[in-house]
Amino acid sequence: MPLVGEIFLSEILKKPVFDQKGEDLGRIRDVVVVKGISLPDLESIIIERKKTYYCLDYKSLTVFNKRIITTTQTKDNLPHYERYEQDLLAVRDILDKQVVDINGAKVVRVNDIKIEGYNGNAVFVAIDIGMRGILRRFGIEKKGEKFLRLFRIPLPYNLIRWDYLQPLSPRLTSISLTMPQQMLSKMHPADLAEIINSVSREEGASFFHRLDVESAAETLTELQPETQLEILASMDTEKAADIIEEMSPDDAADILSDLPANRTQEILGTIEPEDADNIAELLCHEQDTAGGLMNIEYLLYPESATIAETIGYFREDSKDIDTVYHIYVSGEQDRLVGVITLKDLFLNDPELKLSDIMETNIKSLRPEDDEDVVAAMVSKYNLVAIPVVNDEQRMMGLITVDDIIDQMLPPSAKRKRKKI
Predict the structure, then answer these.
(1) Which of 52, 105, 127, 275 is the most interior residue, by most CB within 10 Å?
(2) Distance (Å, whole) CA 400 – CA 102
């Protein structure tokens, strides 16, 4: 049991290892990590002497702490070490690598590794992602703590237990925080997208593929266009179609418009015909027009319907719509004739008809109106949503306030949809 208590990896790196006679065998450069029963074990340490690497089995160590390390091995029988890619090495593969902090929804760096003695083994129990780890690496942890204490600034321990770590990719060359599926689904898509954008492309793709279909669809819309294309290109058509089908038609159209035409048709041919037709309809419009900005998911009911009937329809139909601001009303030949707020819908007499409570002074757009006209209309009348109608005054779609926010982004941040 050479290790009693705890040490940090930085406290033993570059330290000499002595044999039983006190002869210096070399300096520690790395340690080999293997899967243990509950936590990873330190299997062996790698030392360097005269530019040659040797491997010392942990069981050969007789004393192992931050002050002195000794072994039963001698200089004459030190086994050489050849670096293997399949080995998981603490310095090479873990130290300074990025991991995902699920609580902070951000990517952090491994500054140090905490090791403890347990059942005769040295086990990896936590990673240090805080300032203490950095100061410890430079050998000034105590001085830094003392200096900050003068200003009454605490120097907290910022450790993440190894229980929450797992390989991010099949090969054990990088790590990420373990995130149960139910925890991932509770994270905001923008946070998931930020994490994916913060790691390498390979790691980001691996992270994305772990998401359920609903979370993947919401996260995909938050990613940069080039990242979206790379992710869609890396998955089979059926899975890509499942994700696209889960998205709102306007978001799906934005993403598919950047794909090669044959790939877009492959995906559209795999999803439900009705969804494919809705997306194809949006792809016919230039993105910087009302037709390109609109979403074709909205609630439209006949003016002859009663409030009670409409509430019944609403409870069923709104399940598949992300946000509902108003109920729209159609008259003869399905022309748009009115709009009703949800407040008016639920506070009026259920026996009244929609025609009795609707507002008839409707502000609307034509599909060919450009984005400047759209933004000016929304700003002038303080609208949260505005319908798009054709020449016959039939409703084609709806532009909501979040679509306008996208329009207000600087040109470099906008996505330009290719018309197909």
Answers:
(1) 127
(2) 31
